[in-house]
Input
Amino acid sequence: MDEGIGIEARVAAGRARLPQVIGTEWEAGHRRDLAFLLAEQVDRRGKSGLPADAITDVINEGIDHTEFLLQRNRTPEYSYLSATFHRARFEATGRLADLDAAIGAYERAEADGLAGRRLWALGELLFIRFENTETPADLERSIRYLRTALAGGEPRADCHLRFADALLNLSLPVVFRAADPMAYGLVERMTPLVDAYVGEAIEHLTEAVLLDPRRADAVTLLNLAMLAGGAQSAPATESYRRLDAAVAALSPDDAKRAALVAVRHALGRIGWPVIEPTDDAEDQIARLERAVSELPEGHRLRPAVAAVLVGSRAAGQRRLRLEREAIGSVERGLRAESLTDLDHGLDLLRVALRTPSLSGFSPAELILGLGLARRAGISGRRRDLDEAIGHLESVADELSGQPAHPFAGAALGWLALAHRQRGHAAKAVRTGLAALRERAGQVLLLSGTGRSRVVARLLAAEALEIAGWALDDGLPERAVEALELGRGLLLHQATSTLDVLDVLTAAGEDNLATEWATVRDHAPAPDREHDLTALVTYRSFSPALPHRLLRHLGAPSVPLLSPPTTHEIATALRTAGADAFVYLTPTGQTVVVRPNGGVSLPTLPAPDVRLAAYLAASGGEWRKAFGELCGWAGSVVAPLLAAITPQRKADQEISLVVVPWGSLGRVPWHAARIGGRYACELARFSYAASASEFIAAVGRAGDPVVVTDPEARATWPPGALAVLATCDPGPAGYDEAGTYASALMARGAAAVVAPRWAIADQPGAAAMLAAFHTFLDESGRAGEALHRAQLWMLDPHRRPLPEMPDTDLTDPVLWGAFGHQGW
Output
């Protein structure tokens, strides 16, 4: 036929010639050409000006021709042509019978080989039938066909929107617990797939918005999808990232950029949930109602979600009341070891978990796991312990994708205890270390607050406990990791001048600073068993806030969160020429790291009453207590040196770096009395608050530069050495990390020589310091110079120094006061 003639004229010409070819070999070809002309006319029906009745006649005529062709030769082309006419008839009439016929035609076309993007129409028709009949199979098949068609090329924004709409219709009734969920017949089968479907919907809705940011229906559905999936989820985070990248790529005067900015504003700031956690269930429901009300009238999801809102208004409040009562009862039961209160609280928590909640993460399952574990400890029921581990693992998994979530550390810490109680040794240590890392981030965020010291000490004690587990289980490298996490917590708390609010303000993040200032003093303490009620009442804490703060602080590079490995410690020992890095703990468990990277665990005596007596002594009793302390210290140092000495040649000096924990830092280990000698006559002693501090000091090595004005120093040169004649003995809760020497090390000193008790007014103190400076000029190493000065004080044949005092320089109270810290 002549392509230059109009479509209506060509159709008329084809109809006129049809009687002439019926029954001939040309009939099929002529009907084929005429059918395609009719299909083109139907496709142009909005522009043709033909009345509705005439269009219906065209469609029916096309169906007759395609049926004739299919009876003689079933091809994908004829099947698709037939399906196109049937779909047009349904769109013209709106009758379900015509919809069924259209779906049947596309299904025949699929069976005949139709594939790829042409299946989009079948997916759409199945979805339309689902909207009318609520047949689950139609919805599932619709999604399958739409997904296949989308993979076949670059679709339009409305294609992404239609597919996402289908996904949400399949998943949201499960998320929102529709009033009659079994009407879908999908709940049990769908529940494991909900997250995947919601995530996929977010992805396609983002694509739709990027293609056409003015599509209000796409923005509304994206808002609802993020509500269902969580604004902290990976798909939501990726959606925010793509939208922000698109905004950044467009010029400020681009109209599309302004539309995308409006979309981002509608969805909320990055990292914040669309519906923020709050302890006001009424507010939660009101926010959800507003989001759903933006759906178009007649949208399939409106009645489904509206139905759940009616019940959720009461259910949300009931859930919150149940949680508060349950956790109060559990808390009372834990404190008093009352099984009655504990049982009642656990029963209420199980009821609460079965009650709908719209308030984001709930700590109910977390407290249920804790309560079951503690009840197992009281009653000995293994079943309780296994159930506790299941609940705590579930919570830990849920929070694992939310960096620095305020409750992640608590979940992991309680799970570690449960694993330990159950006899899962390696799991307990591994999980305990993960808990310490999570909680270390929380201590970092509390920098500059009064709570930092208390929390750091709590967690350092926990680190010591986990190190003990690792030592008991033959995991020495894990023990070192735990000890360093604990030491890092104490050192950071004692020496850091960081204030998170100052950092944020300096970076121009005033809004973020305001958010943190509002909540930081009320955040749940990251210890294991206290303030459980805060876990329910403190719902205004955004899970994304800690992650955003840590990102601003450069958290991955903060030493507190990145403790050194045994390999790094060994490297520093070799550089410094030291033989062992020794952790002394209050439990008597000792860890020794060697220059070759090996770790040994010598058995040493635990602290006894002589240490306690020394710490409590004053006045005239102090010197006697000091002498007895040096005797007890000898019982510790002697086996320690015996474990290290065989690996050294007889004429080589032994050099130790000692990290004493807690009050063990008050002990002058170099003055330990072993037989008739002192420990410094057998080895050279240096001290450190942590391996991180020691490694940093080794990195600052250089020719010694004596700093006489440490308080006035803003910067420190390489090799900077601070020499102090006086000291502050520190509070009763003494730890090496809290000394003035450690503070100077944190500020940049390579080494510090300082006394551990008041000695400046003693006649021999000046001689000790004079000898030290003499040997420093000769050796160039502060640690070696102090050691030689101590030996000089003990030597009855010492070479004299000018203006030597007439006093007993061998008195350990004189030379034993001074210790060396650093390189």
